[in-house]
Amino acid sequence: MSLNAQQWLQQIRQLPLPEKVRIMNVCGGHERSITQAGLRSALPDNIELIPGPGCPVCVCPEEDVYEAIQIALNEEVILVAFGDMLRVPVNVRKSEVRSLEQAKARGADIRPVASPTDVVRIARDNPDKDVVFFAAGFETTTAPVAAMLAEGVPDNLLLLLSGRLTWPAVAMLLASDEPGFDCLVAPGHVATVMGAKEWHFVVEQHQLPAAVAGFNNESLLAAFYSSLRQLLEDKPFLDNCYPELVTEEGNAQAKKHLYEVMQVTDANWRGIGTIPASGFGLTRKYTAHDARLKYPGYQDEARKRAGEMPPGCDCARVVLGKIYPTECKLYGAACTPRNPIGPCMVSDEGACRIWWSNVRKP
Ligand code: SF4
């Protein structure tokens, strides 16, 4: 059915909804589109839209950020990272360096990059130095990083990898006693790369309605409508409401590179803990580009920091959809985009930052 946003809203309003329905999204881009368009207030009051684990910067463990800061400060390297990551604070004493941005101010050579192409260019332009690429991201970011390595990079380009898979976090929530949602809107960007088929488990193992959505109002509202109808009719299936880009199998070339260069590992998520088979590590063929092997001296100290969160920061519960950003006591008081306490207020994909920039209140 091809309808405009108003027509989709009308369709949703005509549904005989139960007292409360909770729809979770797992993509920072979805949360941004929902919040910027004001979809929460446009939908009937009994529909709750819950932002879930959709921000890769927010789930990057504190110890990885700490390790990146230490390598940048103590080794003769150029450290590059996507811009959001530079402002993510670690939980150390005020007199110590708390972010890559502060390390840069102390003289470390740290440069923001927008793409793997930038990273390769910097490595080629600086053959006498190691260029350490702190690469944190979900499948959509990790696949181009893998393609970069598969296509060949200079020897001085090293990876400090903090890649994560999206679906295991949803699987972990669904395996818990209280997942906290009744329907799932699956991430369009991730499904473009990995294929819609990764999300069938939501329906097949948990009998929950699910729909893959794109990023405009029409696609999101179509996904909400589809999942609500599935719920009402008690006939869950995985609907693809982003057929322009999403196929069942995803991007074959991107996946080929990804699994040639990366292997799936257990991984720690900031404030959440270890989620089985939810991270990426380099395969044996690419270990020469592993910054952790070249600069191992910071790992013991970094590992001791596992589980560190700033006092009072509720990012983990925000990421898991257990509370809304405004329910964190620090939101808008001690924690603002100008003075972020947790990563959810730093990243453009963090729910706290998105809410503060667009609505400020629920
Ligand atoms: Fe963390 Fe700040 Fe969000 Fe609270 S408002 S959860 S401290 S990022």
Automatic annotation (TrEMBL):
Q: Gene3D superfamilies from the entry?
A: 6.10.20.100, HypD, alpha/beta domain 1 (3.40.50.11750)
Which key words tag this protein in UniProt? Iron, Metal-binding
Among Pfam families, the record links this protein to: HypD
Does rRNA-binding count among this protein's keywords?
no
UniProt KW Metal-binding keyword: yes
| Biological process according to GO | protein maturation
Q: Which GO terms describe its molecular function?
A: 4 iron, 4 sulfur cluster binding; carbon monoxide binding; iron ion binding
Family assignment from sequence similarity: Belongs to the HypD family.
Q: What is this protein called?
A: Hydrogenase maturation factor
Q: Which organism is it from?
A: Thiohalophilus thiocyanatoxydans
